[in-house]
Amino acid sequence: MQERVLSGELAAGTIDTWLLWNLTGGVHGGVHKTDVTNASRTLLMDLATCQWDSELLAAFDIPLALLPEICSSSEVYGTAISPLNGVPVSGILGDQQAATFGQAAFSRGEAKNTYGTGNFLIFNTGEEIKHSQNGLLTTVAYKLGNSPTHYALEGSIAVTGSLIQWLRDNLGIISSASEVETLALSVPDNGGAYFVPAFSGLFAPRWRPDARGVIVGLTRYVNKAHIARAALEAVAFQTREVLDATNLDTGVPLSEVRVDGGMIANELLMQFQADVLGVPVIRPVVAETTALGAAYAAGLAVGYWKNTDELRGLWKEEKRWIPHISEDEREKLYRIWNKAVDKSLNWMDEDSVQN
Predict the structure, then answer these.
(1) Residue 321 in this model has a pLDDT that exceeds 90
(2) Engineering a disulfide at 150: which of 141, 268, 301, 355 sits with its beta carbon 3.0 to 4.6 angstroms away?
(3) pLDDT at 101 over 60
């Protein structure tokens, strides 16, 4: 294989590398590059130098020549062939980093939270590599041309939007995901029921693969509407856990949270999220921030926009949710949530059978 790599016959990379290679010619002279955010996701890149780590490559016996050149997130990597003949390819960002860029969270202390199948909170730590002591991941936020690299802390939650899909597909208590809000609004609260969706363990900040999903606090009073409401609340509680970890790591409590993703259309969820966080939750006019962020990076590289200050001026608020409950009520709800999480732990052991 080494000979085939050195001859240029073999190459490897992430999905952005493959797309760029094909856009710029493929086997007929395609460009073999990636950006710092996607390279960091392979866990083979040195965060400080933003280059492939020679010790890790040696440990896994990966030839350096096999991998793409690591570039910034905003520069002209190559020129597209037909049908986009002559168009410069000039912006590459990983999914969550692109969403952060689209939310104009360019500076230290700014953050966004994406509500999709899972949830992903990105907190910009500026030019500082911040190693988490509270269960978060250290990653690259972005790098613009020759400017310094910006870093971030990320909190990944495994089950949020997929929990609503589970209510629809596995339990059948709703026929479409959009119905969950109407059902949840038919009751004033969760009826004492709490839902911890640890279907594949718990991710950030707990990292407990032994956990499994539980619904606790059930009485004869609880019905499917309470379960639906508890499911939505579980999304907000898990986000609170990640945000608390971010605050502890950085010492910079967030004053607001910008949100994006499919679930932000759910008004009940967004209001409860503001309530349980105790800070405003803000939805932008353009909710598809991942595509927007990649476009911003590309536009900066070719001079369509001058700088991030100009991009910041393009960001517009569509709606804001303000906390409505007291601090005592907020902490009471969160305290009960943590009791529920405790019930989900230590489930998988040598006596358990995994399906």
Answers:
(1) yes
(2) 141
(3) yes
Using pLDDT thresholds of 50, 70 and 90, give the confidence band for residue 309. Answer: very high
Half-sphere exposure in the Cβ direction for 210 (13 Å, CA) = 10
In the beta sheet, which residues pair with residue 260?
114
Please write the tens of the pLDDT for every residue from 340-350. 999 999 998 77
Q: Can you tell me which residue has the tokens 């949710």?
A: 321
pLDDT in tens, 11-58: 999 999 999 999 999 999 999 999 999 999 999 999 999 999 999 999
Model confidence, pTM: 0.92
Q: How large is the average pLDDT for residues 155-181?
A: 97
- φ and ψ of 261, to 5 deg: 105, 170
pLDDT mean across residues, the chain: 95
Judge contact between 36 and 140, C-beta under 8 A: yes
Write a three-state SS string for the chain. Answer: CHHHHHCCCCCCCCHHHHHHHHHCCCCCCCCCEEEHHHHHHCCCEECCCCEECHHHHHHCCCCHHHCCEEECCEEEEEECCCCCCCCEEEECCCHHHHHHHHCCCCCCCCEEEEECCCEEEEEEEECCCCCCCCCCEEEEEECECCCCCEEEEEEEECCCHHHHHHHHHHHCCCCCCCHHHHHHHCCCCCCCCEEECCECEECCCCCECCCCCEEECCCCCCCHHHHHHHHHHHHHHHHHHHHHHHHHHHCCCCCCEEEECHHHHCHHHHHHHHHHHCCCEEEECCCCHHHHHHHHHHHHHCCCCCCHHHHHHHCCEEEEECCCCCHHHHHHHHHHHHHHHHHHCCCCCCCCCCC
